[in-house]
Structure formats: structure tokens, C-alpha cells
Amino acid sequence: MLREKSVSRSEIYTPKSSEGLYSHPKYPFTDSMTLKDDTIWHLAHSSFALKLDGRLLVFDYYMPESDRQGKGLAQGFIDPEEIAGEEVYVLNSHSHHDHYNRVVFGWQEAVDDVTYIMSSDIRGVPLEAISLDPFQEVDLDGVRVKSYPATDAGVAYSVFVGDKHVYHAGDNAFWNWQGTMPDEAYVDVLAVIDRSQPMDIAFMLCDPRLEGLGEGGTLIFAKTMRPRLLVPMHSFGEYGINEKMRGVLEEHAPEVKFWPIKGPGESYAL
């Protein structure tokens, strides 16, 4: 069994210039941008930005620049100039192409205060990135991150910011492809998640490929972990599954608030 390991602040490096290795085109913002606290932006698939307690958390950013159709969070993309004044934490759960793109390391050219937290299966990261195996923990001056093993690749994360507990599943899902797995198998997977304080926000899979087979564990997760807000992800652009899941949760887990996302760039005020 893996033992939990803490990573000290001394192991965190000051961001250096990427020297063109992770180039990012510039989309200048002519107006002074202030991102609202207590706000979630859905970017695409499993990628989100969350402004909480004065920090901006970015989860599983993966979008290639070739997919860009506009600028800024409101269009589902990160532009470094828009977040330049923020205290930014970039977390990627694993190396799959729909959860990670090395373009994130180019943001440090515009953003002075950025910390990278990567799953250890992501290779070729800059020295300043913190790599976490499952069951590791890092405390970053008021932002505490814990990692858990995923049922596919990499890790899932709990992030504790201020008095809030935020969970991002990555690919830690109920992969019930054959329809033969008992719900209890996924309940056992969730048993390792920190329960020292209630879960305020959970970014959890609601996968249309598994419709009728547990959707990746959405309802099991809601009933087991009882997050105050459940945010669906991993939809591959098929957002109709979210409206269906809202009905399921209203019937079977009515105490869990649910955000039925309809498309990239949507925001939610906490």
C-alpha cells in the first residue's frame, strides 16, 4: 500500500522563463480585467477555472490552440493576459490528451504568480512543476492539495482553499463498460477521499458513453460523498447528458446541488 507523503514548500521552485518552449499566442485584453471571486468557469470537457478565496485554480486544461474560437474564459479558453494579475494554481490530473496540454507552461511568461501541480505520469515538465503520486500532499501557503489514485490514469485531487474543499476527479470514474460492476466497487474507491471537512465543490464525471451504465459514477458519487455542489464533466461535448442527470439527482440525491452545464464558457456564481 502506498503511504501518504507530504511535499514541503522548499521543494517548490520559482517559475522561470520558458524560453519559447511552450509558446502561447497573445490575445491582449484592452480593458483591465478583474476576475470575480467565488466563480466557476467551464472551459471544455473536464477543464475548469475556479476563483476562490482570491486564488485562481485551473483544472485539466488541455485545449490546443487550433481549437480556439475566441479569447478568454467566457469563450472557454485561458489567455495569460486575462489572468496575469491572479495567484494561479494549474492542476492536471494525468497525461491523456483530453486532460493535459503543455501549453499551460507558457502562461508563466505573462503570469508572475503561477504554481504547477501535475500528476507524476506527466513527463517532460519544467523543474518548477510539482509532480504528485497518489497519496501525496502539498501545502502551498494556504492552498493544500491531496492526491488519490485514479481508476484509469494519474490521480484525482482534493484542494483545500480557505474553508472550502474542492474535488476534481480527473479520470477517477466508475468505468462500468460491461454493466456488471456492483456500485459497491466504486464506493470502495471513494473511501480514500479526505472527509475531514465536507466537500463543497466536486467536479465529477458524467460521461455520455456510459449512459445507463452509471455515467461514470455520478449518482454513486453524489450519494456517497454528498458534495454541496456537483459539477458534471467529461461529456465530450454532449451536454444533453447533464440535463438528464439533473433529473436523476433531483429524485435520488435531492440534497446535492447540480449545475447542468450547457456549453463551454458558462460560468457559475457560488
Written description of the protein model:
The protein is mainly beta. The protein has 3 helices and 15 strands. The strands form 2 sheets. The chain has an 8-stranded mixed β-sheet with strand order 1-8-9-10-11-12-13-14. The protein has a 7-stranded mixed β-sheet with strand order 7-6-5-4-3-2-15, with no helix packed on it. A hairpin with a 2-residue loop joins β10 and β11 (164-168). The chain is globular and about 50 Å long.
Task: Write a short abstract of this structure.
The protein has helices at 183-190, 218-225, 240-252, and strands at residues 5-7, 39-44, 47-52, 55-59, 87-92, 114-119, 130-132, 136-139, 143-149, 155-161, 164-168, 201-205, 229-233, 257-258, 267-269. It has 270 residues and is mainly β.
Shape: globular
How does CATH name the architecture? 4-Layer Sandwich
CATH superfamily: Ribonuclease Z/Hydroxyacylglutathione hydrolase-like
Radius of gyration, in angstroms, nearest whole number: 18 Å
Q: Major beta sheet, specifics?
A: 8 strands, mixed
The oligomerization state is single chain
Total domain units: 1
Q: What's the average pLDDT?
A: 88
Would you report the number of β strands? Answer: 15
The CATH class turns out to be Alpha Beta
